[in-house]
Amino acid sequence: MGRIGRIAFLGTGAFGLPLLRRVAAMADEMLVISQPDRPAGRRLRMRAAPIAAYAREHGMRVLAPGRLRSDEAREALRAFRPDGLLLVSYGQLVPRDLLDMAPRPALNVHPSLLPRHRGAAPVAGTILAGDAEGGVTLMVMTPELDAGPIVAQWSVPLTGRETTPELEAALADLAAEVLPPELERWADGDLTFETQDASLATHVHPFSRDDGWIDWRRPAEEIDRKVRALQPWPGAWTTIDGRRLHIRRARPVPGVDDVPIGALLPGEAPCVAAGTGALQLEIVQPQGRPAMSADAWRRGLAREHVLLGAGRPEDAAR
Predict the structure, then answer these.
(1) pLDDT in tens, 151-206
(2) Using 50, 70 and 90 to split pLDDT, how confident is the model at 312?
(3) Containing domain of residue 185, as a range?
(4) Of 122, 214, 230, 289, which shows the fewest CB atoms inside 10 Å?
(5) Cβ atoms within 10 Å of 33's Cβ, excluding its own
(6) Are residues 127 and 179 in the same domain?
(7) What local confidence, expressed as pLDDT, does residue 44 receive?
(8) 197-218 mean pLDDT
(9) CA angle, corner 28, sides to 26 and 33, nearest 5?
(10) Looking at residue 79, which CATH number applies to its domain?
(11) Does the residue 166 lie in any domain?
(12) Which of 37-51, 62-76, 178-192, 267-281 has the lowest mean pLDDT?
């Protein structure tokens, strides 16, 4: 395995962990830049980002500035004198002066087949769109979000049953497997790249809680994609008696005629009537309770006839 010099690795989420392990074995020296520790969990205890936690555990130098544009971050990067910057799911835009500080072009590893699904949630965007394939893109970084020239892409076929955590983990392993030869070419000054076709670009905005609301008037196949895509945040949810019901696992099935949209259908498996077809519920989580099988949830209902989703997002308890 070739050596790739002094590398500034910018990353935050778990998507970058497998690649960080590979890069650490290839680099002569590393500076890991991640997000600051943040409160997490019900008790809001301070928790390090996955990349920062791994890097600290393995004795790597870690910088976690609140803002990459800060004087502290700029001075630390300049003092490190990196040969190249490699960004993997970092979460902040990198200003032009930092992109240009190393002799090599800065690179970004993005978990979609650009120019499709630029933005904050490309894996969820891939699932929501019903794409037949997902993938990983290695690109040259520019100040514009995910718009730089493409160095290489690797695609994987999708089964149509992936969740966002499952697909993200698969793409993370793929990136760690296929990128090392490209990083060696990067170190040798032998990269080639091609401009993106901006007319084909799609964008995925950061999700809010209300994005998880299920509109039962939509086709069951579309609702199923939302259930699989919006994990773990914000989750796909509906309402019953003014309280949230998260749908954690489900699948589309044929529907029945002449029933209200959102009605819980009779039968052995709990199914909900959608605009087209029905959604068979498998795992649900009532507000304030742990996740449970949909069968157990239905057995605990006080009445037989249930209509889900009568309340809009703003009507449900927060």
Answers:
(1) 999 999 999 999 999 999 999 999 999 999 999 999 999 999 999 999 999 999 99
(2) low
(3) 6-203
(4) 289
(5) 28
(6) yes
(7) 72
(8) 96
(9) 85
(10) 3.40.50.170
(11) yes
(12) 37-51
Is the per-residue pLDDT at 317 higher than 50?
no
Q: Does some domain include residue 48?
A: yes
> Are 191 and 227 within one domain?
no
Residue 129 above 90 pLDDT?
Answer: yes
Burial of 93 (0-12, 13-18, 19+ CB in 10 A): middle
Q: What is the pLDDT of residue 268?
A: 85
Domain end, chosen from 151, 171, 203, is at 203
- Does 199 lie in the same domain as 219? no
**What is the C-alpha separation between 53 and 2, in angstroms, rounded?**
26
Is 1 inside a domain boundary?
no
Total structural domains in the chain?
2
pTM above 0.85, yes or no: yes
Residues 45 and 155 in one domain: yes
DSSP letters for the chain: -----EEEEEE-SGGGHHHHHHHHHH-SEEEEE-PPPEEETTTTEEE--HHHHHHHHTT-EEE--S-TTSHHHHHHHHHH--SEEEEES--SPPPHHHHTSSSSPPEEEESS-TTTTEES-HHHHHHHTT-SEEEEEEEE--SSTT-SPEEEEEEEE--S---HHHHHHHHHHHHHHHHHHHHHHHHHT----B---GGG--EEPPP-GGGGB--TTSBHHHHHHHHHHTTTTT-EEEEETTEEEEEEEEEEE---SS--TTBEEPSSS-EEE-SBSEEEEEEEEETTS--EEHHHHHHT-S-S--B---S-GGGS--
The pair of structure tokens assigned to 78 is 């300049």
Given 203, 219, 235, the domain boundary residue is 203
Q: What is the mean pLDDT of residues 17-32?
A: 98
